[in-house]
Amino acid sequence: MENNNKDIELGSSGPVDDFNLGLLIFVINKSIVWMVLIIILSVSGAFIYLRYAPPIYQATTTLMLKEEKSTEILGLKDLLKEPDQQVEISREIQLLKSNLFVQRVVKDLPLQISYFKEGKTKFVNTDLYVGSPFEVTGKVKSSMIYDVPVYVRLISPRQVQIVFTMEDKEQEYTGDTGSLFTNSFFDIRVHIRGDIDAEDLKGYYYFEFKDANDMISEVADKIEILPLDASTKTIKLQYKDRNPQRAKDIMATVADEFIKFDVERKNESLYNILRFINNQIDTFANAASELEDSITGLKINDKYVEPSNDYLNSLAEKSMDYDSKFRDIDYDISLMRSFKQLLTRSKEYGNLPSLNFRVSTITFEPEIAAINTLQQQRNVLLLDATVEHPEIRLLDKQIEDQKIKLNKTIDNTITGLQDSKSLLRDEYQKYLDEISRMPELQSKYQQLDKISDTKNDFVMNLYDQKAQYLIASAGIVSDYVVLEKAKNETEPVSPNTNMVKIAGFAIGLLIGLIMIVIRYLLQNTISSVEDIEKKTTAPLLGIIPTYKEDLERSQIVVTQDPKSAITESFRALRTNLQFISNTPGPKILSTTSTIPGEGKTFVSLNTAAILTLLNKRVIILDFDMRKPRLDRIFEVESHKGISTILSGQTGVDECIMESGLPHLDFITSGPVPPNPSELILLPKLHEVLAYLKTKYDYIIIDTPPIGLVTDALEILKISDYPIYILRAAYSNRNFVYSINRIITESKIKNLSIVVNDYGRGASGYSYSYGYNYSYSYGYGYGYYGSKYGQGYYTSTPKQAPTSWIKKIFGAK
Known about the structure:
Radius of gyration: 55 Å
Strand order of the largest sheet: 14-21-20-15-19-16-18-17
Distance between the termini: 35 Å
Number of strands: 21
Helix content: 40-55%
Number of helices: 24
């Protein structure tokens, strides 16, 4: 209970605590027209967007990765090493987005010039692509003309007019179709495509030159690559464009160029290998031919004839084993030296060939494979980088290191073979000693023939490898096939008509709801009894409903219709006064409020009138000496009254006036004094009230608003029935906290509240009418501002015009 009282005193409450369903319904009813208008505007905006937003079409194509490899099908798996599919796919996805590849696509399509047809409103244009009735050919001289609209008017099938603006100067040319239009920006010819009709002659067309680099970047940015589907091994490509035919053509060209590029890349490696083999064949074939010619010449000069006896044949057979080993070693050493020369001299970065050695223990396949892998990585990086790129230079360093390592391995292997050959020569020399009896010439020419055979064998081996690589080259195909040819959607993918319409409605509805929330949160006036009961401990004495007619000023209404709701409410108020104080004797009733206009004078008058119906003698005193009202209400002169009585200028009896109702008198405030607060504090006040108690049963005092001056506090302290007036849909909610301040600081414990004009504005939608007579303790100084005190010391101010913002967000 203490916490609740503390909250009331401090005036703390949140939106959730102050939620009022009736107020919300009132705000909704007041806002429904604006909300419908906002929704209509939002939906209209959506339709305007759909009218002027250019449609975007999407074209798609699908590539599938084949499982089988072409080299495996041809049985050449060992000749051409193919990289892992997953690694290659990742690289090729990057390739599809690279400028190097897109440049090939743009080069094959008519994208250097864009054609448009301008709409009637000039806010909408149609991208014609190849559908324009004319075609422009020629060249651009100045880059300033890029993206500048060049308007073309078809005067007739044989004559055109060209107009464009450059450097704030309009340039116009007229000539025959096909004739040359030349200036400092371009040289072009305009050709008519097929037959043109009257509609084409009326159309307003223009074209734009496009920079090649800009077009490459634009196409590359628009290409969308969906990730590889692992189950089907497919790659889906998408492209979005204003023209559906252009989107389709770009997708078809991308697929075709990708397959061509894949084949070219595979063939490039084979071409490098074949070029190396051809060079080796030319070198060693010439050397072998020259050796044979030399041996033949020597035999002629020496008149040597090959022996044919059985003995020599048997010796030859015995030495075949040694001869074969020497040839194998010589072949391998020669092959390694040739390969070393290739490795040392070559500055190209193609694949190195595989080497087939006759000595089975010799192999360099791991080192060759490592170099080829690094070279392939270098070639891929060169697609998007230059040779000076750090990663390229790093790969160059790694390739050179691997070559140096391979050179050392070759040198060591050659040394080992030479050592083996020396050992064999020692053994062979022992055998030669056995045949030393052979003629010197026979031994000489046998050696020469062996050398010649070795060279011929090496050359034939090169021819054999060349044949195998030629077969592999003929069988190279792309690892990708076009699974689904390029096609475009019949309907545009953007804007989504249904979604835009729904979004327009949803945005309008959201803005409308936000407006309702703002208007609800801006409602800071009292709209229900709960607004009072939750924030103060003062009891609710009565609720005065809204009067059915507008009143220019306060007046007595309870006597006009005794059975009306407002009359009954004042009867209830009269009855509730007995619960505050029921002791016999005259009573003082005072009314006050926070600001003018809350109806304290209206309540005072009608409370007095309702009391006279019980034959009670009642007098009303107008203590609002700064802004008197009773003289205006009863239409009397106010030359004397409360101010003259308290200042001793006149007596009480001479200031009492009759109201025209039985038992009801009044005293006006009199002339406006310079010191009304000091007059109220004089002992004369108590003398006047004591005298009036001898003549009347009820003394009703209409005090000044307590939110502006403190005059009313002294009167409230001496009153039997101090009443605080709040007006529904007018008084600020925070005014309730000033009641707590009065109770706690001024010690006015019997202060009660009357809610006036209930049913006006949002209060008409409230449903909670219960009374709460509980008490709580605290303090709250209310909310007073200059806008609430305007006009109190002067005449009633004119109503300021309401701005359109307040009309939208304020629901009074």
